[in-house]
Design goal:
This protein is α+β, with helices and mostly antiparallel strands. The protein has one domain. The chain has 5 helices and 19 strands. Strands 5, 10, 11, 12, 13, 15, 16, 18 and 19 form a 9-stranded antiparallel β-sheet that branches. A 7-stranded antiparallel β-sheet has the order 9-8-7-6-14-4-17. A 3-stranded antiparallel β-sheet has the order 1-2-3, covered by helices on one side. The termini are far apart. Bound molecules: 2-acetamido-2-deoxy-beta-D-glucopyranose (NAG) (3 copies).
Length: 391
């Protein structure tokens, strides 16, 4: 009993602490503290613990308790199951390889019970690595200069226009480029508005995940915080079975390509962003409008393609399929059916795009444009063997 009271008092103290209106510096520090505290607090809400066949442990948290401790989300109310209020329109041929089968992923064959979501149980070590991975990912880069190792890109993006994009989508082929140390190599869709962005795709990032598997990831950058997956107060997962950060086992080869269908959709009726996964566009998570300032009003750029990072003096890692581009979907990593969602919520082929690759020929991107093929539509190919050391 006494123990309960102490816990309650501590908890109340904590709540009152995070409720205070604070200046920028405090917020920054608080976000780090939130990052540290979150797993422990959430752990207290765990109703059940489940494991994946990869050995990761997840706590099942009731879907509406997961953000209980987040300052910015305190006033939020929403109904489950979570759906967007408006929906993307337009005909989509929703065929792609089916990737996720909970019975191959969870030891219990299904994930969390109804009404709960799996939240990874982080160790202190995991959190330290996540903090480093976030700092690395935030490191500034100078596009189109060759005098600086660090972050490199081979992407296609929408040009600077006055269009407000309600999102973007693509089907991205999956590879497992070799990285080491603090390097990472990713393929992703990114929506941007000012300093804020959301990216989603696959990544090989040993700093973050402590292994070299290809994993589904998100990176959220708001004006006050940034983080991967569900590590901070921005993305709310809503599926009982599909966790962010999960390994993607099917890796493409010249004989067979496996790919990942992803959509970021901005719901203009309430300002929330939705992450839709797979051919049936299942919502696996969402970002409430109030975690953003700029991005809460839609995006003004959409990007598709590859991104790598290497520390100085270490030859930069491969991107995509680890080949010099062949202009062949069998050999190059691709994003096919690259689409934007327009101001009336139609999912349309991406037009008015430009290429950006900062250290050709180490990494390159081909924009094949809107091909005649219904399977590919607007197709881009990207990648490279890397090996750049900054000279
Ligand atoms: C929550 O609601 C209260 C009362 O309406 C308001 O004063 C406060 O600013 C809100 N907090 C957030 C984070 O929106
Ligand atoms: C990271 O990986 C190494 C090697 O597989 C392992 O010994 C270590 O326990 C892992 N650390 C964590 C936090 O999982
Ligand atoms: C969005 O796309 C649809 C279908 O192509 C088109 O009819 C509509 O005019 C577009 N809306 C805007 C705002 O461009």
């Amino acid at each position: 009993m006494a123990k309960m009271v102490v816990l309650l008092v501590l908890f109340t103290f904590f709540l009152s602490f995070i409720n205070k209106e604070v200046g920028c510096k405090r917020i920054y520090r608080e976000d780090h503290m939130e990052l540290k505290r979150q797993p422990k607090l959430l752990h207290k809400f765990a109703k059940k613990t489940i494991r994946t066949k990869y050995g990761d442990t997840y706590d099942c948290i009731r879907i509406n308790e997961q953000h209980f401790n987040y300052r910015s989300l305190k006033n939020l109310t929403y109904d489950f199951p979570v759906r967007s209020t408006s929906n993307p329109k337009g005909i989509r041929d929703q065929k792609s390889s089916s990737l996720f089968n909970p019975s191959n992923f969870w030891l219990n064959g299904k994930g969390c019970p109804d009404g709960m979501v799996p939240i990874k149980r982080y160790t202190e070590d995991d959190l330290k690595r996540a903090k480093l991975a976030t700092e690395i990912h935030n490191s500034k880069y100078k596009p189109l200069t060759v005098d600086r190792p660090g972050t490199h890109y081979a992407i296609v993006r929408t040009k600077n226009t006055n269009i407000v994009y309600h999102g973007g989508s693509a089907i991205i082929s999956i590879y497992n480029p070799k990285v080491e140390g603090t390097q990472y190599s990713s393929a992703r869709i990114k929506v941007i508005n000012g300093p804020e962005s959301i990216e989603v795709g696959w990544t090989v990032n040993p700093t973050l995940y402590n292994d070299t598997q290809t994993r589904l990831y998100t990176f959220t950058k708001t004006s006050s915080s940034s983080c991967f997956d569900t590590l901070c107060n921005s993305l709310i997962p809503v599926r009982t079975d599909i966790p962010l950060g999960m390994p993607l086992e099917s890796i493409s080869t010249p004989e067979q390509q496996f790919d990942l269908q992803l959509m970021l959709f901005w719901d203009s009726s309430n300002g929330n962003w939705f992450l839709k996964f797979g051919q049936d566009e299942t919502v696996i998570g969402f970002w409430p409008k109030n975690v953003f300032t700029a991005l809460g009003d839609g995006a003004n750029y959409v990007e598709w393609g590859g991104e790598v990072f290497s520390p100085p003096d270490v030859p930069s890692p491969p991107m995509g399929s680890d080949r010099n581009l062949q202009q062949d979907i069998k050999y190059d990593a691709y994003c096919k059916k690259i689409k934007t969602i327009n101001e009336t919520d139609y999912v349309v082929n991406a037009v008015d795009t430009e290429k950006l690759s900062d250290i050709k020929p180490y990494y390159d991107v081909f924009d094949e444009g809107i091909t005649g093929s219904a399977d590919f539509q607007h197709l881009i190919l990207f990648g490279g063997v890397g090996g750049y050391t900054g000279d």
